[in-house]
Amino acid sequence: MEILLAHPTLPEQGTVELNISRTFVINVPAEEARRQVNRWLFTEVSCMMGAEAPQLVIGERVVWRVPAVLTASHIGQVGLVGTVDVDVQTGFMDNSAQRVKELQERGIALGQQMPPYQPRRSVAAEYLEKDIQPTHPAPHLTSSLA
User: Fold this and answer.
1) Is residue 13 within 8 Å of 46, Cβ to Cβ?
2) Closest by alpha carbon to 34, among 52, 58, 61, 55?
3) Which of 4, 17, 37, 45 could cross-link with 51 by S-S, CB 3.0 to 4.6 Å?
4) Count of alpha carbons within 13 angstroms of residue 137, beta-carbon side
5) What's the pLDDT tens digit per position in 83-98?
6) What is the dihedral of CA 130, 131, 133, 134, to 10 degrees?
7) pTM (2 decimals)?
8) Parallel, antiparallel, or unpaired: how do β-strands 62-72 and 55-58 relate?
9) Cα–Cα distance for residue pair 119/104, rounded to 1 Å
């Protein structure tokens, strides 16, 4: 697990002493947050988006920061479209119409950079069915077409 500190105040260089004392309750496990975001992305944003493993972010609120990625069948993972924060105590996440629009716009921008889909022109023989007889049109259909 990786922990990010939101907006830490650090000097540009030199010795840094960091003491963290923060108590919080995790009611929403990381995997549950990822599944929640994944379901929302797929059903409300785009079926071409999915959620990746979250990071714990400690700031004013403690949240799971879940990366949202664009995927394409001919490429796989295209790139990061953004992140969705899920509150570790309440499970609240920003699923507003504005958030949907932002993720979709980033997805469209990434999609425009993808190479075009090139369908395969042939299928390897090992994947073709070998026990199927060729089909022929019914005799009554061929006579009416002539």
Assistant:
1) no
2) 52
3) 37
4) 8
5) 999 999 999 999 999 9
6) -20
7) 0.73
8) antiparallel
9) 25
Q: What is the pLDDT of residues 76-129, one digit of tens each?
A: 899 999 999 999 999 999 999 999 999 999 999 998 988 887 777 788 888 888
Q: How many angstroms separate the CA atoms of 5 and 132, rounded?
A: 61
Token output for 140: 């009554």
> pLDDT for 57-68, tens place per residue?
988 889 999 999
Question: Tokens representing 30?
Answer: 């990381």
Strands 62-72 and 3-5: what pairing? unpaired
- Phi, psi dihedrals of residue 126, rounded to the nearest 5°: -65, -20
- The DSSP secondary structure of the chain, one letter per residue, reads --EEESS----SSS-------------S-HHHHHHHHHHHIIIII-TTEEE---EEEESSSEEEEEEEEEEETTTEEEEEEEEEEEETTT--B---HHHHHHHHHHHHHHHTTSPPP---S---GGGS-SS-PPP---HHHHHHH-
Q: If 0-12 CB within 10 Å is exposed, 13-18 middle and 19+ buried, where does residue 12 land?
A: exposed
